[in-house]
Amino acid sequence: MLDPANNNGAITPDGKVVRFGGTTGLLVTRHGAITSRFSVTLDLMQAAGTNGYLFAKATAAGSRYYSLYSSATSRSVIFYYRTAGSATLRNVRFPVNLSDGAQHAVLLSVDGTVATLRVDAETVGQATLAGLVDDCGAPSAACQLVVGQRPSATGNFLFFTGLMTEARLFTATAL
User: What is the bridge-based pairing of β-strands 37-46 and 26-28?
Assistant: First the structure.
């Protein structure tokens, strides 16, 4: 997702590191729809004491399909999702603080209705979801995948502050 040829150019990669200053994110211009089994891997260093979206799949107006949010305030990572056929946004909270200024390898794996979060190769939590995670499909004005922020009808907000060296979406594999 951080490939310079696969984004809107809002952030220029510095070698293999993408710097997010807390004011903009990265629109991924090519991505596929997820299946009932998918994973997201991130290698990041979140600025200490900050909150922000690591990634979000949503409409341009901000209606989320799924996203991952790191909260320094609650010292947790929250996976927001909605199930097929429902507009209700649900969430599961994992008790881990990524906003400590240290580098972390993050893996969110969804296998059917089970979500697992691993940080630095350690499982920090597993949760049963209310159903299969919904997706809006291929990139369009009605379907956006963004790294480091969440789209909103009132403007993009809750930006990530820090560095990322990897962000990958595996649309059909639960790692």
Answer: unpaired
Q: What would the mean pLDDT of 9-26 be, rounded to a whole number? A: 72
Token output for 84: 């097929």
pLDDT digits (tens, 9 = 90+) for 124-158: 999 999 999 999 988 887 889 999 998 877 766 78
Q: Which amino acid is at 169?
A: L
Strands (E) across the chain are located at 18-21, 26-28, 37-46, 52-58, 64-71, 76-81, 90-94, 103-111, 114-119, 122-128, 144-147, 161-170
What is the predicted pLDDT for the residue at 12?
A: 52
Sign (positive or negative) of CA dihedral 75, 174, 157, 100: positive
Residue 115 predicted with pLDDT over 60: yes
State yes or no: pLDDT of 2 exceeds 80. no
Nearest to 147 by CA among 43, 71, 73, 48: 43
Structure tokens at 2: 């951080």
Find the range with the poorest average confidence among 10-14, 42-46, 68-72, 119-123.
10-14
CATH (residue range 4-8+28-170): 2.60.120.200
Domain range summary for the chain, segments of one domain joined by +? 4-8+28-170
For 44, counting Cβ atoms within 10 Å of its Cβ (0-12 exposed, 13-18 middle, 19+ buried), the class is: buried
